[in-house]
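Rotation project, supervised by the postdoc (A.L.). Task for the rotation student: set up a whole-complex structure prediction and record inputs and outputs verbatim in this book. Inputs entered:
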Amino acid sequence: MKKLFIASLMASMLAAPALQAAEYEIDTQGAHAFIQFKISHLGYSWLYGRFNTFKGNFSYDAAKLADSKIQLEIDTKSIDSNHAERDKHLRSPDFLNVDKHSKATFVSTKIVPKAGADFDVVGNFTLNGVTKEIVINATKLGEGSDPWGGYRAGFAGTTSINLEDFAIKNILGPASATVHLDLSVEGIKKS
Amino acid sequence: MTSETKGYDRTSRVLHWSVAAIVIGLFASGFWMVDLSYYSSWYRTAPFWHKSVGVLLFLMMGYRVLWRLLNGTATPLASHSKAVQRVSHLTHLLLYVLIFLIICSGYLISTADGRPIEVFGLFDLPSAGELFAEQADRAGVVHKFAAYGLIALAVIHALAALKHHFFDKDETLKRMLNP
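Outputs recorded:
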């Protein structure tokens, strides 16, 4: 009986790493992760910007993609559209109201594998104090050992949000109702 | 008024009233332009004029301080108590400090990302770069509240001048208007 217990314990210990997806820390330290956005300017061109400060982690196992999870925490104050006066306006209550809502977060609730390397990440996105479910169209870019003794996995994703869904009044005109988000994240496997 | 009392020379008077007019104009334009809609035809031109006139004010104030240092200013009226003289002097000093504080903070907002300030389309005032973190936001807070403070103090300053003119019936206001 005791032997059987030990055997099963050993078996479960051996099996555990295979069942449990690996944990990754998003490499914001080395800036191999980006949260970019673009929004139409008057309907005539794209305005690009990004969030410079954020952190996050994900769990991922290529064999069990549906069990993967990701969460992100974005410092809204770090918005950067390469124009100090505009960024000041974007941080004001007219847009992100960063004094009141200093963080935007995304927490995945479901991963839906699609064809090839593509999958959907369904999750709750909180921005300006409003939480809404969004879907990120993601794709796996690659994974493997890095030259410095670590192990990395990288993904790209896109999604779109309507400003008014997050209680941000659209004062920029009808062509600018939607913000397109473009994410590129590389995670380093936690040892 | 005693014969030894020195009044304000012409340059000081012209500078005083010009600065007063410009400060009121800049405050009004600033108060109004921050709430302009994105599609207002003034959205880009109002800040352009506000900044240009702000730089002009800086030059005028620089000249004013220099003029005052070289030529001195009016001596206090003998009819004013020592306390009144001291409070007026402090008020004038604070008005100067606030004006320079507002000009500097305004400069720091617009130049926080390295962009210069275009002055009347004549020349570019270069940026000194980002001197501290969150420069545009922090300088913006200083710019706004120092401006409210300046206008409040200027109202007190004007009311005091009117009080001296109509109640005390002394020379205080007159000597800023006439030689």
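Student's summary: The helical segments of chain A are 2-19, 84-91.
Supervisor addendum: The domain at 21-189 of chain A is CATH 2.40.128.110 (Lipocalin).
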